[in-house]
Amino acid sequence: MTAILRTAWLVARKDLMVEARSRELAYTTLFFAMACLLVFAFGFVRGDGRAPDDAAAGILWVTVVFSGTLALGRAFERERSGETLRALLLAPVERAAIYLGKLLALIVLIVGVEVIIVPVVGLLFSAPVGRAPWMLLGLLASGTIGFAAVGTLFAAMLVRAQSRDVLLPIVLYPIVVPMVIGGVRGTVAIFAAEPNLALAEAWLGILVFFDAVFLTLALWTFAPVMSE
Amino acid sequence: MRMTDRLVPVLIAIALVMFVRAPFLLATAPYEASMGVVSKIFYFHVPAAMTMFVTAFVCGIASVVYVIRRSRLADHVAVAAAELAVLFGLIVLVTGPLWARKAWGVWWQWDARLTMTLVMWMVFVAYLLLRRFGGPGSEMLAAVVSVFGMALVPFVYWSVNLWRTMHPTTNVLPSLPGSMLRPFLWCLTAFLCFYAALLLTRVRLEASRAALDDAFAAREE
Predict the structure, then answer these.
(1) Residues 169-188 of A with CB under 8 A from B
(2) pLDDT given for residue B193 in this prediction
(3) Facing residue for B137 by CB, picked from A163, A181, A228
(4) What digits encode the pLDDT tens for the residues A104-117?
(5) Interface test with B, best of A160, A162, A167, A209 (most B CBs within 10 A)
C-alpha cells in the first residue's frame, strides 16, 4: 500500500514539476475561468448591476467544472503529444499508482484555480465566501475530488480515441451531475440570506459518498481500460 | 441462439396482441378524479420508465461482465440495451411533459425525478456517441461509462426523497385500485415483451455485424 502511495506521489511530483516549469495549464485554466466569469456576468447580472442571490454558487461551480475540463484535456494532451503516457504505462508499477498520481496532480491544479476564483466570485457577485469557510472548503474539496476522479479516468482512456476533445465533456458531464448538484445546493445553503449549515452538511455527506463510489470504480476500471 | 431466435416471433406476437387490446382496456378504466383523460398517459409513461430502468441495469451489468471477462456477447448485449434505453427514455421524456403540461401547468420542471431521468438518458446517449465516434477500442471505454452510469441509478431514487419533488412518488403504484392496476400491469407486460423481443433481435444483429467484421478483417490479412 505504501509502495503504491509512494509511486503515486512520484507521478504527481513529476506532473507538478513539469507544470511548475511551463505553467501552461495554470495560466490558461485560470484565464479561461476568468473568461467564464465574464460571460456569466453578462448572462446573469440585472439592470441594477447585481446578480440574483442564488446565482453566485452556480457561477462558481460551473466555472470550476468548465475550467477543470480544460485542464483535464490539456494534461493528457501533453502526455499524448510526447508519447510519454505509453512510457508511463510500461513502467513496472501498479496501474492504480499511475492513476492516483495523475489524479493528485490534477486535484492540486484545480484547487489552485479555486483558491483564486472563490475570492473573485465573492468580490464580483457579492457572495459571502467568508461566512462558513470550512464548510465551503469541504464542499469544494469533495466536489473537486469526485469530478477529478471521473475526469482523470475518462481523459486517460480517451487519449487514444478519435474526437477526444468533444467526447470528454459529453461523457463526463452527465456522470458528474451529482457533484454539481451537491456542490451548488450546498453552496447555495451557505450563501443564502438565512444560511442553513445543516443542509450544507447533508450535501457534503452526499459528495463524500460519491467521492468514495467514483474513486472505487475508477481504481477498479483503470487497469483493464489502460491495458489495451 | 437457436432458442432465442424462435422466442422472438412469439414475444412480438404477444406484445402485438396486448398493445392492440390495451386502448380498449384503458378506455374502460376509471378516470382519475382531478386529471381526466390525460391521466391515461400513466399507462404508457410508467411502463416505459420501468423498462428504461430494466434496460439500464441490463446494460450496466453486461458492461461489468465485459470489463471483467472481455466477453463479446456481453458487449453485444450492452450496446443493444443502451440503444433501447435511449428509445424507451425518449418515450418517457415525450409522454412525461404531455402529462405535466396538464397536471402542473408547465412542460418541464427541474425536479429530482425528472432531472435524474434526463441525466440517465444522456448517459446512454453519450455511451452511443462514444461507440460511434470514439474509433477502435471504444467498446471498453463505453463499458466504463455505462458502469458509472449504473452507479448513478440509486441516486435517482434517493434524490426523490432528499430533494424537492412534484413527481408522484414510487408509493403511488401499490395504492392503485384494481380497476386501474389491471390495465397498468397489462401495459407493463406488453412493454416488457416488446423490449425482450427488440433486445434479442438487436443482440443477434450485433453478433452478425461483428462476425462480418471479423470475416472482412481475416480476408484483408
Answers:
(1) 170-171, 173-175, 177-178, 181, 185
(2) 92
(3) A228
(4) 999 999 999 999 99
(5) A167
Q: Give the cell for residue B152.
A: 448513478
Max distance between CA atoms of chain B, in angstroms, equals: 69
Residue ranges making up the domain that contains A147: 2-226
Q: What is the pTM of this model?
A: 0.88
A171 to B126: CB separation less than 8 angstroms, yes or no: yes
Gap between the Cα atoms of A11 and A100, Å rounded: 8
Residues of B in contact with A157 (CB under 8 A): 140-141, 144
User: Which of A196, A72, A202, A183 is CA-nearest to residue A137?
Assistant: A183
Number of compact structural domains in chain A: 1
The answer to whether the CB atoms of B141 and A224 lie below 8 A apart is no
Q: How far apart are the first and last CA of chain A?
A: 25
**Bridge partners, residue B36, by sequence:** B32
- For B87, counting Cβ atoms within 10 Å of its Cβ (0-12 exposed, 13-18 middle, 19+ buried), the class is middle
The pLDDT, as a whole number, for residue B102 is 80
Which residues lie closer than 8 Å to B54 by C-beta, 6 or more apart? Answer: B192, B195
Residue B117 near residue B159, CB atoms below 8 Å: no
On the question of pLDDT at B129 being above 80, the answer is yes
Extents of the domains making up chain B: 41-167+176-220
C-alpha distance from B55 to closest chain A C-alpha (Å): 18
- Amino acid B171: pLDDT: 59
Kindly report, residue by residue over A176-213, the tens digit of the pLDDT. Answer: 988 898 899 899 999 988 888 988 998 999 899 999 99
Q: Is the pLDDT of residue B121 over 80?
A: yes
Minimal CA separation from A167 to chain B, in Å: 7
Residue of A167, A213, A225 lying closest to B130 (CB–CB): A167
Chain B residue set in contact with A, beta carbons under 8 Å: 67-68, 115-116, 119-120, 122-123, 126-127, 129-130, 133-135, 137-138, 140-141, 144-145, 147-149, 151-152, 155, 159, 162-163
Burial A160-189 (b: 16+ CB within 10 A, else e): bbeebeebbbbbbbbbbbbbbbbbbbbbbb
**In this predicted model, what pLDDT tens digit does every residue of B144-163 receive, in sequence order?**
999 998 888 777 666 656 66
Q: Would you tell me how many other CB atoms lie within 10 Å of the CB of residue B109?
A: 19
Q: What is the pLDDT of residue B174?
A: 65
State mean pLDDT over A70-83.
Answer: 86
Residue B198: pLDDT over 80: yes
Q: Which chain A residues are Cβ-neighbours of B138 within 8 angstroms?
A: 161
